[in-house]
UniProtKB/TrEMBL annotation:
The keyword Hydrolase does not apply. InterPro entries: Ribosomal_uL10, Ribosomal_uL10-like_sf, Ribosomal_uL10_bac_type. The keyword Membrane does not apply. This is Large ribosomal subunit protein uL10m. One of its GO terms (cellular component) is ribonucleoprotein complex.
């Protein structure tokens, strides 16, 4: 009985595997259509992708970056400080910084500080908050690279700034703002050669005074010339009449009489 249970009921049988080769050659380019039921399932689970636009990746990346950008209170405070510098400075210069040692940069900052000129460094995000929506918004392309800003309370400090830049060739002048007007590099350098406002006003007043005096002299020219001619004619008449009475013939006639 035990042998029957062991040999008959508890005996395990391994499956018989047979490999059969496909009859025909598989066509990879034109495969056989699937079965109807399988075709229905494949049609249902077929993914549908929306055709992306030409610049969709760039737009999505920009939206993602803007959505992930958080409002930093510290940047807001620094941006308010930078805007205050722009509003209360008569002279602003933008300098591109090449490879420079920190020691040389410190010497340039000390030289500018002696002339009451401040040197500031701000990032592009801070400058976007500082000058966004203001007349100074056109300076944002200057901050694609490392840029240093120089602030001076008076426009007369432009000569001192240029003299310090000549001694520091690693700092390259890009542009400047003088009394609220954006100037290019050539205009900024040309402004340094101009005299100050007091001297210019004095020269302008002298020109106006000289023009007025010339106009008066031109108007009185004919009258003065006529007076001079009449005076000379009168003197000649007096000299001729006085010379006739004092001649030798007149003196001899007086003696005979």
């Amino acid at each position: 009985m035990s042998n029957f249970v062991i040999n008959g009921l508890l005996q395990s049988r391994n499956p018989l595997l047979t490999f059969r080769r496909f009859r025909g050659k598989i066509n990879i380019q034109r495969p056989r259509a699937p079965h109807y039921e399988r075709a229905r399932v494949l049609e249902v689970i077929k993914p549908a992708y929306k055709k992306p636009e030409f610049n969709a990746p760039c737009i999505e990346a920009h939206k993602t970056r803007e959505s992930n950008k958080l409002d930093n209170p510290y940047e807001t405070i620094i941006a308010r400080e930078a805007r205050n510098w722009f509003e209360h400075s008569k002279l602003v210069a933008f300098l591109h910084v090449n490879s420079i040692r920190q020691e040389d940069m410190f010497k340039a900052q000390v030289a500018l500080h002696r002339h009451n000129v401040s040197v500031k460094v701000y990032g592009k995000s801070i400058m976007r908050k500082a000058v966004g929506g203001t007349p100074f918004e056109t300076i944002l392309p200057l901050f694609e690279a490392k840029t240093v800003i120089v602030f001076a309370p008076e426009p007369q400090k432009i000569k001192q700034v240029l003299s310090v830049l000549k001694k520091t060739p690693q700092l390259i002048l890009l542009a400047g703002i003088v009394e609220g007007r954006l100037l290019s590099k050539n205009e900024f350098v040309a402004y340094a050669t101009m005299p100050d406002l007091t001297t210019t006003r004095a020269q302008f007043a002298a020109v106006l005074d000289s023009v007025g005096g010339k106009i008066v002299s031109d108007l009185q020219c004919h009258q003065s010339q006529l007076v001079n001619l009449l005076d000379a004619y009168a003197k000649n008449e007096q000299a001729s009449s006085g010379g006739g009475e004092g001649s030798p013939q007149a003196a001899g006639e007086n003696v005979e009489s």
